[in-house]
Records
---
Amino acid sequence: MISKTIVEALNSQIKLEANASMQYLSMASWAEINGFNGVANFFFGQSEEERMHMIKLVKFINERGEKAVIPALDKSKSEFDSLQDIFTTFLESEETVTNNVNKIVFQCLEAKDYTVHNFMQWYVSEQAEEEALARTILDKFKIIGSDKGGLYLFDRDIENIAVNKE
Ligand code: OFO
């Protein structure tokens, strides 16, 4: 039995993962249209991952005898100024998700719900990895700036980052 507060908190996390999945799909589509196929593949992959994170929560809630709520989603951002803008949005999105994960972990401790606390540790690690990835990529833009050759090479190299992640 999970407390009502914790069920609501977990359901809020479903919405954030779903929002992130759609946001990354929107970014993948923008990159594809603008000729950055490497970045497009990267975000198609990220979008799938976020969907998987969402489903993991849905199953966990339902398997514990509670009810997962499949939410209406926020409208994703679909216009971007540049690749740097895309990856800034990526980091901001991950930070939003991390804040909610941390909030839930705190609520679990308050409620002495160590089972959900344990389940949420997977999300804590995942968020640390994804924020680090977003920051590493954004650091590269400090070197590249808007140099076209640099952006071309970046788009080629990010496919390797995407492959290495799997
Ligand atoms: Fe769901 O892993 Fe980041 O947001």
Note: The helical segments are 4-33, 37-63, 83-111, 114-144, 148-165.
---
Amino acid sequence: MNESTPIPESLVEALRGAQTVTMLTGSGVSAESGVPTFRDAQTGLWARYDPADLATPEAYSRDPRLVWEWYEWRRGLVAQAGPNPGHLALAQLERHVSRFTLITQNVDGLHRRAGSGNLIELHGNIMRTKCSAEGVAVEDYEPEGAPPVCPNCGAPLRPDVVWFGEALPADALHAASEAARSCDLFFSVGTSGLVQPAALLPFEAQRSGATVVVEVNPDKTPLSRHADYVLRGRAGKVLPALLEATYGS
Ligand code: APR
């Protein structure tokens, strides 16, 4: 048992008995992989930019080269990163639970690389590129140019992520709400709970009778005082401890 992260016995029992578990993650679950959280200060060349100013359609139409190069920098960070024990514990947990859904706000693709299967990428995936005009994913394109252009229609390409002010993919949002409404346990891991509609999901779970809402975060968030359990710690420590306490693995 990981002594620094005591897991309440009642939570272990609830998890052991749960048929349906829904998990919401934010950038905090990737922090231990070396991927800066969204609200971390940016480093180096990008230190002077606020992500919230770059991850917008306005920034892209104003300066597509700047936005494309920022995402290329972030893709480089993500490509060097790897799943951490928190990601791996979630992939393990999925194997123990009959109906397990992992909803992530992260665009870094680390849950998929860790082996998570039933995954809803609410905000898209930074490693995917799409045509800014047709909105469809584009895999093969000439890498020249920043941004490169769509081989089909010639419009500039962009990362396949949801920018501030853009609607979330309707099918992903519907599936996420469904998973929140139909679960026995809802976990909110590594998210500040500041950005809607993802921030509403734990409350949707609570309103629709999810017996237990659990937060995993070293810091307080708006959800903390509403959660049934708050496991105050880092995901890379708490999630493996939860797995070990519940399933001995
Ligand atoms: N383990 C767990 N949580 C952590 C860890 C860690 N090792 N390190 C930091 N955290 C927590 C922080 O305390 C914070 O509450 O992770 C949270 C990160 O919050 P944000 O940086 O706001 O990231 P996130 O909640 O994912 O942002 C949500 O907002 O900016 C948009 O689209 C972007 O998907 C992002 C969304």
Note: Residues 26 and 191 are 4 Å apart (CA to CA).
